[in-house]
Amino acid sequence: MKELKTCGQAILVAATLAMLASCNSSPEASFLDAKVQIAQERAGFEARRDPGALLAKSAENAKSKDEIIRYNRAYGNFALDHGKTAEAYLAFERAALAGDPSSGRRLAKVHLDGVYHPSNTTMVARSVYLPLANDKSEVTVRLLLAKLIDAGQLSAGQFGSSDTWLNQAASAGGTGALRQLAERAEASGNLMLALDYYTKGDKTSKADRALRQARVNYLGQETATNVKRGRAWMEIARKLDKQGAAQLAARIYRQTSGGRDGAYLSTVAAAGGVNVMSQSQLVGAFRAAKTEAEREKIVEPLKAAAKAGNAEAAFNLAQLYLGIGSDPFAAGPLLATAFNKGKSEAMAPMVALLMRAEPGQTNAEPLFKAVTKAADGGNVEAARALSSLYGIGGYKPANDEERIKWLRKAADSGDTKSQYELGVYLHENDKTEAQKKLAVEYLLKAAKKGDAFARAYLKSKNIAEN
Fold first, then answer.
1. What sections of 189-310 are H helices per DSSP?
2. Which InterPro entries has this protein been placed in (predicted)?
């Protein structure tokens, strides 16, 4: 009963409001009548009059500033909800011209997006957009003014330059403005300024952005291919990230088969120790070459970079010599250079070559020196290699004292296997208590790391691990 009474009261109120509204044709009456019709629809009753038409009437006939804003905002929202986009934004435009900032910002957003175009752009810009631009945090309006000036819809003489508005938008935190400024600077040839704008906008490093711009210009990924600009960006990238530029140059060369600035890209790649061909392609091309001059031309860029101390170039050239199998020891000095310059992968082929070297083989000396230097520096692989070399003999004669010296070097560098092997050797071959104690120390170190052989040996000797 209570619910029926409440519903009845609502109907009575609605009917009374409708009666009052029907007796008055003012904008306020139309507005109130529209609210009644909307309330009836929400209550599940059929509206007697079109609320949209009533709201439109109140919006169009409003007189005071407050009425214009209130009625047009109400109609704008209603029209949007009912899919009448043009009518909605015309209402928001009237509210904005009456001084409503929220309607103005709404209008600016859809104007920028191309959803709506005022009938008098200059008037709206002067009366709505310029006042909104006084807010220092406003980005959308500034972007819109720049766009309209660029399109010739607004006079730069009256509204200022588009660059000015873009810079203001950028200062207010607009990443879109930064990108536009970057693109303008790039198009004008000022790549360093463009780089500043790009990196501020996307928060990447200058090196990464320069590499990206080189790639997109060479390959035409975002606009038409522009090799000249791509090379300019590549030069900037080389100064910031030589290795990254070399790798990118090689990728671009391969993707374009050298057809887009091939000679330059090959030079950039080689300067960073990267061959424009893959390792298998390099070996294939070298083997297919018919003359020494052809072969020399293929490896010349890598040789020059390796001579200059480039680790990547030295390693790649060494792999080539190892791959063709003609004189593998020609790779020795190159591997030594690569390792000494930080290419850790060079150690394994260095050790393999050294173990193959014959006594007195002069071209193995750079390998021996490099491996010895690495072992002295704590490289376990190098120290174990020397221990094996002196254990079985080869390039150097067998020498048990040297073998144990390098085995201990590896053990002291933390190698578990070497700790176990040294511990067993000392325990079995040294009779003094001091040496026995040292042997147990190495065995315990290996056991604590989980070495099963060390644990088994300690157990066999009745030595507790604690």
1. 191-202, 206-219, 227-240, 242-256, 262-271, 279-288, 292-307
2. Sel1-like (IPR006597), Sel1_AlgK (IPR050767), TPR-like_helical_dom_sf (IPR011990)
Q: Tens digit of pLDDT for each residue in 95-117?
A: 999 999 999 999 999 999 999 99
Tell whether 337 is covered by a domain: no
Cβ-contact 374, 347 below 8 angstroms: yes
Q: 185 is written with which tokens?
A: 């600077």
Tell me the backbone φ, ψ of residue 75, rounded to 5 degrees: -70, -40
Q: Which segments of the chain have a pLDDT < 50?
A: 1-8, 10-24
How many domains does the structure of the chain reveal? Answer: 1
Is position 437 within any domain?
yes
Structure tokens at 388: 């094996």
Rounded Cα distance between 399 and 421, Å, is 17
Contact call for residues 196 and 210 (beta carbons, < 8 A) = no
pTM above 0.70, yes or no: no
Q: At what angle do helices 347-356 and 311-324 cross, to 10 degrees?
A: 40
| Residues in Cβ contact with 183 at an 8 Å cutoff, skipping those fewer than 6 apart | 194
Residue span of the structural domain in which 448 resides = 414-466
